[in-house]
């Protein structure tokens, strides 16, 4: 490669002391870049030339490095996805001088390598790129670590199959595809019968071996297009793409036969196992992944009532219709509470892990019933979400929070946006408008989106996050680890923090499995420079363990319960 900028400096006799000093500073800067493993570049578009400094030492992976002095050759070195990202920067029309940062993947004899290109785009008067200048660093090891952590966070640690969150993401896509293509799919839950008895009789190690063997047998019976994941301790979820209603029973029998056909060898002896299967046909039986999983579980409960090795398909029932009517009643209560000003906020402290001082308060919804009793969010928000009125609740929560911030200057508050509201672009725009109208307190407002909701409508929510941050708000992902996770997308959203789902934090010190998972999530978040909040912290032992893992903030009853009227609140 032509290492143009790294040629020895030629000092002319006419150079003055200022010129010599500037040359020495340039040489020191060049050596500093080399020492830090960075190559600088200057790419001019008119002649498609790239002048490199340090590239011979930093990027020795190309078979013919001298060719990289041409932009076209450099682009052809990249894989299609990376080439498209770089082309978007080069070919875009924008008359302003713009910074950019790109993660690029290229091929080498040693396998894929990753480069991070950071620089400035200079434009001509017509908006076309005139030149790109900046630095390139090889970041292959860091990218591999991200991929490793991503794999760990999407896979079940014991079996290697997808975990519940990732399986649910796949199920969402399967349902959406089935609806869009006017076809059908199915979701099945296969449960190992009486695993508790196996654990008691043979020990938990043998129980784990049975789970692993069952998962392998189930996976071998499926088509390449089908998907399997572990949804709970003794349960596996299976997505059957493009499946007729008649085929569900056939596949269920095949799954059950795979488990019962042969004994399972464990280090503690041979174990005979059976399984029961519940299924739901989609989209006829459910319109979304959450509903599908719940209804498959209902069918599984019915299958297990007859004993071991059972099978059942979800069917509508009068009892479930009664539950629907109860939801309608709750919705009526919520609307009345909105009209009468009976929706309240309770404030729970989130504290610094290091010195245990209060960082902010999370606003938690409460509904005051006509008789004066208080209903928690879990008693009415799910019904409001199902019936499409949760946006009214979230808007009221924002209004109360803004008013509280204005009356309490030293306080920071976190406000939740529900999953249903986050999927409504018109509602998001209205939310932004209200924050913009209250810019004086926006800097003390933290907005929390659930992980699943943020990524389900990614483009809309990425814009929502960007607008909030421009207004001075900070943004957090709530229930981190509980929804389906595209970590690259989370990084792209430029969040400020993540809150690890409390289900993984509760009793952490006595759960080695959760410790591995939480440590993985914290490591991933730190790799993206995100602050980390741990929810449901219940003991000093758990708090110390979390602090050692790198968690920045704690939330939980151990440090403070939600209060409707805390001492600091000025009504």
What does this structure look like?
The chain has 571 residues and is α/β, with parallel strands linked by helices. It has three domains: 4-138, Beta-Lactamase, CATH 3.30.450.310; 156-315, 2-Layer Sandwich (Alpha-Beta Plaits); 344-378 and 388-554, Alpha-Beta Barrel (TIM Barrel). 44% of the residues lie in helices and 23% in strands. An eight-stranded mixed beta barrel has the order 13-14-16-17-18-19-20-21, surrounded by five helices. Strands 2-1-5-4-3 form a five-stranded antiparallel beta sheet. It has a five-stranded mixed beta sheet with strand order 7-8-6-11-12, sandwiched between helices. Helix 13 packs parallel to helix 15. The longest helix has 23 residues, at 318-340. Mean pLDDT is 85; it is low at 1-14.
Considering the chains and any ligands shown, give keywords for the structure.
Beta-Lactamase; 23% strand; 8-stranded mixed beta barrel; 3 domains; 22 helices; TIM Barrel; alpha/beta; 5-stranded antiparallel sheet; globular; Alpha-Beta Plaits
Brief rundown of the structure:
The protein has 571 residues and is an alpha/beta fold. Helices cover 44% and strands 23% of the residues.
């Amino acid at each position: 490669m032509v290492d143009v900028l790294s040629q020895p400096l030629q000092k002319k006799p006419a150079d003055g002391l200022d010129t010599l000093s500037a040359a020495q500073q340039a040489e020191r800067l060049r050596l500093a870049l080399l020492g830090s493993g960075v190559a600088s570049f200057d790419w001019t578009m008119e002649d498609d030339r790239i002048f490199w400094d340090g590239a011979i030492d930093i990027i020795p992976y190309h078979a013919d490095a001298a060719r990289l002095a041409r932009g076209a050759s450099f682009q052809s070195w990249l894989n299609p996805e990376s080439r498209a990202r770089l082309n978007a920067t080069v070919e875009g029309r924008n008359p302003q001088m713009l910074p950019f940062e790109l993660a690029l993947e290229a091929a080498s004899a040693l396998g894929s390598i990753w480069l991070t290109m950071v620089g400035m785009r200079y434009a001509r008067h017509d908006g076309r790129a005139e030149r790109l200048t900046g630095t390139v660093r090889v970041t292959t090891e860091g990218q591999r670590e991200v991929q490793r952590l991503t794999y760990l966070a999407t896979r079940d640690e014991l079996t290697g199959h997808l975990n519940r969150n990732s399986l649910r993401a796949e199920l969402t896509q399967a349902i959406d595809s089935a609806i869009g293509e006017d076809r059908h799919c199915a979701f099945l839950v296969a449960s190992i019968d009486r695993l508790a008895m196996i654990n008691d009789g043979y020990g938990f190690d043998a129980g784990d071996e049975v789970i692993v063997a069952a998962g392998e047998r189930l996976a071998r019976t499926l088509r390449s297009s089908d998907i399997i994941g572990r949804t709970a301790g003794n349960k596996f979820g299976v997505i059957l793409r493009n499946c007729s209603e008649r085929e569900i029973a056939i596949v269920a029998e095949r799954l059950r036969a795979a488990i019962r056909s042969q004994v399972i060898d464990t280090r503690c002896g041979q174990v005979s196992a059976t399984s029961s299967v519940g299924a739901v046909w989609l989209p006829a039986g459910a319109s979304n992944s959450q509903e599908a999983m719940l209804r498959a579980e209902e069918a599984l409960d019915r299958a297990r009532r007859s004993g071991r090795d059972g099978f059942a398909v979800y069917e509508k029932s009068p009892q479930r219709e009664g539950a629907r009517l109860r939801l309608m009643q709750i919705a009526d209560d919520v609307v009345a509470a909105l009209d009468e000003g009976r929706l309240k906020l309770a404030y729970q402290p989130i504290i610094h892990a290091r010195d245990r001082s209060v960082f902010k308060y999370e606003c938690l919804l409460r509904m005051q019933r006509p008789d004066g009793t208080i209903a928690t969010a879990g008693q009415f928000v799910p019904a409001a979400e199902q019936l499409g009125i949760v946006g009214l609740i979230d808007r009221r929560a924002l209004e109360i929070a803004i008013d509280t911030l204005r009356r309490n200057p030293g306080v920071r508050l976190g406000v939740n946006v529900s999953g249903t509201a986050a999927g409504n672009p018109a509602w998001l725009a209205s939310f932004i408008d209200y924050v913009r109208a209250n810019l004086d307190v926006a800097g003390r407002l933290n907005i929390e989106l659930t992980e699943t909701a943020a990524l389900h409508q990614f483009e809309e929510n990425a814009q929502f996050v960007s607008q909030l941050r421009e207004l001075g708000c900070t943004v957090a992902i709530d229930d981190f680890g509980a929804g389906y996770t595209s970590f690259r997308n989370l990084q792209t959203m430029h969040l400020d923090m993540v809150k690890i789902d409390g289900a993984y934090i509760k009793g952490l010190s006595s759960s080695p499995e959760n410790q591995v998972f939480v440590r993985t999530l914290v490591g991933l978040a730190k790799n993206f420079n995100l602050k980390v909040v741990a929810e449901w912290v219940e003991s000093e032992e758990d708090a110390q363990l979390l602090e050692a893992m790198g968690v920045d903030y704690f939330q939980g009853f151990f440090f403070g319960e939600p209060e409707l009227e805390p001492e600091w609140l000025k009504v």
